[in-house]
Write a sequence for this structure.
């Protein structure tokens, strides 16, 4: 019996070391794109949670290409006063699919977290204000063509016009929930991303 538990302990140690070293290895680079990396999980994708039997689910092995954060985020952030070209592209951004708008909200949140080392906190209007320049560095992270809109109450809204629900998971991870096409939060058609 002692041999059995010794073998189990050795296998557990080897499996643990494998996971530790695997998580520390840098992500593979995409050929021809110096600032892009390949992510081998769907944690960066907006996902639709549904309880309908037989509904399609995303493949757990699909590969997503996401740009790595730039060290100089201020040069990529939206300018405080939009140019005429930015105003025109903002009109085009209003026609983006709702899941694209949700993904842009995720990217904006990650850019803020990278610049400040933490997420903005507070209610939707407070978070929106911080993302739009009411922060210590006065950086506007919301590009004019991102499709992200703000309602009259100062809340960032999803592609359907419903305010996003921001859930602080940790200091650097934020869950963003869209109410989906029915515009009712916490139903089967909600979309969630981190």
């Amino acid at each position: 019996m002692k041999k059995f538990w010794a073998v189990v302990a050795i296998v557990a140690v080897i499996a643990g070391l494998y996971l530790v070293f695997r998580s520390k290895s840098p992500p593979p680079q995409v050929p021809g794109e110096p600032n892009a990396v390949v992510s081998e999980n769907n944690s960066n994708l907006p996902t639709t949670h549904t309880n309908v039997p037989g509904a399609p689910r995303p493949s757990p092995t699909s590969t997503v290409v996401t740009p790595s954060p730039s060290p100089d985020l201020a040069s990529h952030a939206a300018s405080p006063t939009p140019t005429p070209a930015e105003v025109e592209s903002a009109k085009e951004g209003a026609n983006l699919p709702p899941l694209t708008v949700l993904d842009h909200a995720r990217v904006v949140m990650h850019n803020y977290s990278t610049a400040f080392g933490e997420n903005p906190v507070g209610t939707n209007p407070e978070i929106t204000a911080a993302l739009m320049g009411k922060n210590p560095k006065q950086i506007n992270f919301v590009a004019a063509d991102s499709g992200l809109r703000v309602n009259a109450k100062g809340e960032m809204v999803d592609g359907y016009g419903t305010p996003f629900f921001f859930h602080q998971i940790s200091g650097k991870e934020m869950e963003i929930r869209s109410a989906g096409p029915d515009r009712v939060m916490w139903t089967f058609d909600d979309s969630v991303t981190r």
User: Anything to note?
Assistant: The helical segments are 2-24, 73-76, 84-93, 98-116, 124-131. The longest strand covers residues 33-39.
